[in-house]
Amino acid sequence: MDIKGSVALVTGANRGIGRAFARALIEHGAAKVYAGVRDPATVTDRDVIPLRLDVTEPGAIAEAAAAAGDVTIVINNAGVAGTGTGLLEGTFEGARQAMEVNYFGTWAVSRAFAPVLARNGGGALVNMLSLASWAGRPVFPGYAASKAAQWSLTDSLRQGLREQGTLVVGVHSGFVDTDLSAWTDSPKISAADVAEQTVQALANDWVEVIADEETRRVKAALSQPPRPEPRA
Question: Which element (helix H / strand E) includes 32?
């Protein structure tokens, strides 16, 4: 699709990957970018339009869809880590929050904006997924499960929105250099790199972005039989 002249909505666009998505769209000629955030006062980029949008509030989502009726690109980027839920200890509160935001939030926004995209010619829907979509992680099982669910949802949306001409793109990446991954010193890709690759995918009608080498390795391993971890 043509990015130049497009109108986009990016959830969670006040920082991190969301802000990078907004900047990349503007730099590639988008006519307007809405920054969908819980608190519009947190949006400091003057090139975007702050829009109140809490992805866990049905009323707020409906209001945002009504206010941004000219949207042709929707990027579901808002997400949480769901901390506090260990594999064998801790409460399930963090895991439930991750599922509520990452999975149900993406679903609710997609459902609300699908008719908007249809009215505006089909456009594109982008979901920010993760390497964890394909690989469970004992250190953050709730987050990984929410991303696996979000990946499945993305495939369902791709099939379900095909008839209305909506391009559905899944973006997978390992650790991105944002606040969300500040706890680890593992190799990280920049938010700007993820955003640029995503814009290129939109411009070329690609349905998937595999942003870094580690994610490519994990995806390739899916076709191999599982191997037991070595014992200590």
Answer: strand 32-37
